[in-house]
Amino acid sequence: MSSADQQSRMFIDYLSVEQVYPFDLPKVADITIERYCARTGERLSVTQPSWKHEGSYTTSITIRVDGRKLIVQGNPSAVDRLDNLFGFRTLDQCVAVYNRILLEYGLPALTKCTRLDFMQAETSRVISRRVSGKRSDVKAAEQEGDAGAYIKTVEKAHKHTTVGDGMRITRIDLTTNRAVGKGNGLQYVSSLSTQRAGYKVGHLYDDGCTVDWKARDQYRKAYIKSVAITKFLLPKARRNFGDDSAEVKYLRDLIAYCEEHGVVRMEQELKREYLLREGLAWWGMFDEARFQTIHDAFLKIDDRLKVTAMDYETIADHLISEKIVTSTKAAYTTAQYAMLWMTGKAKFDFEKSSVKTHRARLRRIGIDIANPCDALKVRPIVHTASREVIPVDVLPMPTWYRRPNHLQVAA
User: Where are the beta strands (DSSP E) in 92-192?
Assistant: First the structure.
């Protein structure tokens, strides 16, 4: 396996963008909101309410036209797909999906930035600088190797507002499927909740299947993917297509696949403030590989963590798994004798054949009801196995998986 294949398989799970054009955008909504100056009668702006482009399988993309500004929000990796276990890995692929949708409404395409203007708040003076997309001759850019360094340097020194001639990213979610092994998801997520992401303490949800870390400029979370598909996607598919449909069968196969690999989804939401501060807002003006570096830092949250997964059984389950009894009824009856013995109040007649039978069964799993019960040594739950959890960030894609079209590029 090459070094590239060994890297975490990061892809984009959500993308919110906007772009301002040098012309008025066409009216595509049935309703428009126009603003006029009461003194001069001049029309100031035309706003169209946002609407949702409904894709297949109930996926939707939100579009809004506000004068000359176009806003698009949604999950490009989920458009026209039942799931997004594996999604688009580059901005080019995501924007290609958005541009295909915009074309249907006669709206202009989202484009990369070729020019940035820095507007100084104190004097309203505009400092313009063309950036070729190659190395800048500014010292900070020479150190970081991309135009994003220049943007950060100017904004930090002069408190400028940045205006670009292309698409600006206002939110992007970076995602990796982490395989922790079958049956290890709950222990792994619970262990992650003990770690800090940045300065934030993890919050474990009541069901134990999700942990998140909330910050003003970032939101991070980890959750068991099979549980999420079962909770959110499967009910919709059952309502829309029926229990016996090919779509429902596909999702059930996907759930089983995620359970088999113990898939824990690692997601990191970068918000507007973070993107602007780090020079990652303007598409085409930074090295996209920086997203991978930022995401890798989040994935290292378990570097100091050693997770041991443990399997437990009730006494009744243990009697069956050890083949001491063959029926559930017999297992629960014998387990009841153990529970009565643990209370310390039960008195058994060991001359009776039924008591002798249950005692013999329990002795085979290390419980002797003829002896006084030591509550410190006996538990109604039996520990059967322990194993170390070793996360892997390269999840193999099954041959039957319905892939997104990764061959599209931005217009």
Answer: 115-120, 126-130, 160-164, 168-179
Look at residue 220 and give its three-state secondary structure. strand
| Domain spans of the chain, in order of start | 114-162, 175-266+303-309, 312-387
* Strands 43-54 and 33-36, sheet pairing: antiparallel
Q: Between vectors from CA 28 to CA 27 and to CA 33, what angle results, nearest 5°? A: 55
Q: What is the pLDDT along the chain (411 residues), one digit of tens a residue?
A: 333 344 458 999 999 999 999 998 888 877 777 778 888 877 777 777 787 888 767 678 999 998 899 999 999 999 988 999 999 999 999 999 999 999 999 999 999 999 888 776 544 444 444 444 443 444 444 454 555 655 555 555 445 677 889 999 999 999 999 999 998 898 899 889 888 898 888 999 988 999 999 999 999 999 999 999 999 999 999 999 999 999 999 999 999 999 999 999 999 999 999 999 999 999 999 999 999 999 999 999 988 776 555 555 778 888 888 899 999 899 889 888 888 888 777 788 999 999 999 999 988 887 888 888 766 555 565 555 556 677 888 899 999 998 876 434 333
Q: Which residue type does 68 have?
A: R
Spell out a b/e string for 327-340, using b for 16 or more CB atoms within 10 Å of the CB, else e. eeebbbbbbebbee
pTM: 0.72
Report which of 13, 95, 103, 26 is spatially closest to residue 59, judged by C-alpha positions.
13
